Every structure is written in structure tokens, then in C-alpha cells.
Amino acid sequence: MSKIYCGIDFHKRTCTLVMKNSSGENLEGVITVHTKRLVQYLSNRKNLMIGIEASGGTNHMVEMLKESGHDVRIINPVKFRAVGLGGKKTDERDAETIADYLRANFIPEVHHKSKVSREMKSLIVMREHLVKKRVDSVNHIRGILREYGITMKTGFENFQKEIRPSLEKLENKLIAENLRTLLEIANDLLAQENSLTQQIEDMAKESVKVKALKSIPGIGVLGATICVSVIDDISRFKNAKAFASYIGLVPSENSSGDKKRLGSITRSGCEIMRRYFIHGARAILTSPSRKMQSDPIVKWARKIEARKGRNKATVALAHKLSRIAFAVLKDEGEYSTKPIKQIQRDLLKKAS
Fold first, then answer.
1. Are 233 and 352 in contact (CB under 8 A)?
2. What are the φ and ψ backbone dihedral angles of 214, each rounded to 5 degrees?
3. If 313 and its partner were Cys, which of 5, 84, 299, 305 is the partner (CB 3.0–4.6 Å)?
4. CB count, 10 Å around CB of 70?
5. What per-residue confidence (pLDDT) applies to 123?
6. How many Cβ atoms are within 10 Å of 77's Cβ, its own excluded?
7. Rounded distance between C-alpha atoms, residue 89 and residue 31, angstroms
8. Nearest by Cα to 322 from 269, 243, 212
């Protein structure tokens, strides 16, 4: 049987399908199917290669389609749009273009993450949501109090100590009562945040990869967990440089001819993961620990700090940490500052 190329314009409620053969002939015209019935509609069809753009709910749909025995490709929408559809944009035109590019084997693909990886990232994202809401509530309370000449020291611990006495200073009892309600919401969010953090830590204890990443300076449980969830399959990255580029920790480039112009980091990829690497690098540079400061990568970052300043040294160290994280997962080992020959001798001793 000849292969059939199926382009799907995926939406929450309905999907538009176009199927073409290897000669480019449209086999069934334009088909509109309810999203809930998509898997059932395609279940009896054989030798399908399906293309579907990455969007909300795509991973789950692709998982079900693969379980039905179909060859499914997730399309990077940013790169695919750059190719240009031409003319007026419609669901039919999108589906047809996807089918054409599948046939031409010219599809910019996105990695289909495993269910475990998506679950880990979902927990981290939920925690981020709680943290943001709590910080917004605290800052709102601070801002209202400042309008009446009441200021507090920076930091959440200082806020917790000073907030109730500060509310007693307010003359308007109505405002004070509403701020107390907002304070209760912030405390409730903090309790939920702590509970979710504990759940993530309990889940991370079972992961060998998380344990290995925690051996790297500046990477804690949350940073290791988001790293494992984003990478998912380490073999999809050619090398450490490709991984650092994937998360946006490499310089942007605008070069032409013999002129090479490098700018700030690209900031592409997972923002949470990149931020955790930056925070980890900053924590290392500000740490008073003598053991950490004697680490070779910290000494290297200190030299950059002396020449370029702390901010650039922080980003450079974050880039270095990302490459080390890749190597740790690739080699299935743990971070060590020992020379390679010493590590090899230690491994031989354990083997004997």
C-alpha cells in the first residue's frame, strides 16, 4: 500500500483534515471532524503519516494516535509559519499545506514528550503559578500600605513579621479588614506552595536522573526536576552546545559577510528552566562556602566576573552548568571535580 499523508489543523473542538497520496492527489477533499472523535475516525485507516501542529492538547492527542498505530509528526508552528502558507489563511489551506510538506519530507518537527516528563513539568508549572499569585498578593498589600506612609523591610520573612503590626496602624478599618483577607489568601497560597514543593521532592527521590543532577553545584531538587522533564530523551540533542542553545543560553547572532555580531542570549526554549540555571549560577557566585569557591568552574566564573562584571559571569556560569547537566545525563554519572584519570582509577577499584 502506498503511504497516505494526512495534514490536520488541530483545534479544541474541531479538526480539519486533508489526505493526499504520494502523487499529491487529494483523496477525500476537506474533512471536518470533532476533536473527541478524531482518533476513532482514523482508527480503521492504514499506512497514514499524520502531521499536526504543536498547540494545547497536542501531546495527548498524538499519544492516542500513536497508540492506534499511526506515524505522527508534531510540527514546530514557529518554523512552519516561517515557510509561509501564502494567500488567505484558512483551516483548509493549513491542513493541505501540512499534507504537502509531509509528502515533501520538509516538516520542522517537535519532540513528543513522554507522559512522565509532562507530568513532572505540570507540577513545576503549577508551583510557579502559586508562587506568582502569592508574590502578587504580598506586593499589592505592600503597595496599599505605602500609600499611607507604612513601609516594611524587603523579604518575605520580614513581611510576615511586620504585616500585622503594620495593619494595626491603619486608621481606615475597612481597608485594614480587606488587607487582612488578602493576607489570609497569601498565607493559604504559601501553604499550597509548600505542600506542592514537598510532593515534587517526594517524587524526585525516585528519580536517578534527578539525584545525579543534584550533585552539580547550583542545581537543587526543583532545578533538577524541570531539567529532566524538559530534556526527556537526552539522545535528541546532538551535544551539550545544542542543549544550551535549546534553552536559550547562547548569544544571539546577527552576522553578514565577514562581520560577526553577537548579542545577548536568545532566551528561547523553556523560560523556567533557563531561570533556574541563572538563579543557581547567581547563588554559586554569592555563596560564602569555601568548598564551592574552590570548584574549578567557580574559579573560571570569577575570572569572567573580574573582567566583565557579575551579570555576565552569572549568565556564562549558567551556560556552563547547562552543559555539565547534559554531560551528567548523557554519561549517567554524577558531577565530580576530580581529574578523569583519578575517576577511572576509582571505578577500577570499585569493579575489582
1. no
2. -65, -15
3. 305
4. 19
5. 95
6. 14
7. 17
8. 243
Question: pLDDT above 90 covers what percent of the chain?
Answer: 77
Contacts of 2 (CB under 8 A, 6+ apart): 21, 22, 47
Cα–chain center distance at 1: 40
For the chain, the structural domain boundaries read: 4-110, 115-204, 208-341
| pLDDT tens digits for range 221-238 | 999 999 999 999 999 999
* Percentage with pLDDT > 70 across the chain: 94
pLDDT digits (tens, 9 = 90+) for 47-93: 899 999 999 899 999 999 999 999 999 999 888 876 655 667 788 98
HEC-encoded secondary structure of the chain: CCCEEEEEEECCCEEEEEEECCCCCEEEEEEEEEHHHHHHHHCCCCCEEEEEECCCCHHHHHHHHHHCCCEEEEECHHHHHHHCCCCCCCHHHHHHHHHHHHHCCCCCEECCCCHHHHHHHHHHHHHHHHHHHHHHHHHHHHHHHHCCCCCCCCCHHHHHHHHHHHHHCCCCHHHHHHHHHHHHHHHHHHHHHHHHHHHHHHHHCCCHHHHHHCCCCCCCHHHHHHHHHHHCCHHHCCCHHHHHHHCCCCEEECCECCECCEEEECCCCCHHHHHHHHHHHHHHHHCCCHHHHCCHHHHHHHHHHHHHCHHHHHHHHHHHHHHHHHHHHHHCCCCCCCCHHHHHHHHHHHHC
Assess whether pLDDT exceeds 70 at residue 100: yes
Taking residues 236-253, report their average pLDDT. Answer: 94
Ramachandran angles phi, psi of 116, nearest 5°:
-60, -45
How, if at all, do strands 48-53 and 4-10 pair? parallel
Mean pLDDT for all residues in the chain: 91
User: What's the predicted TM-score (pTM) here?
Assistant: 0.87
Sign of CA dihedral 48, 51, 54, 56: negative
Residue positions counted in the chain: 352
Q: What is the CATH number of domain 4-110?
A: 3.30.420.140
Residue 159 is placed in which grid cell? 513581611
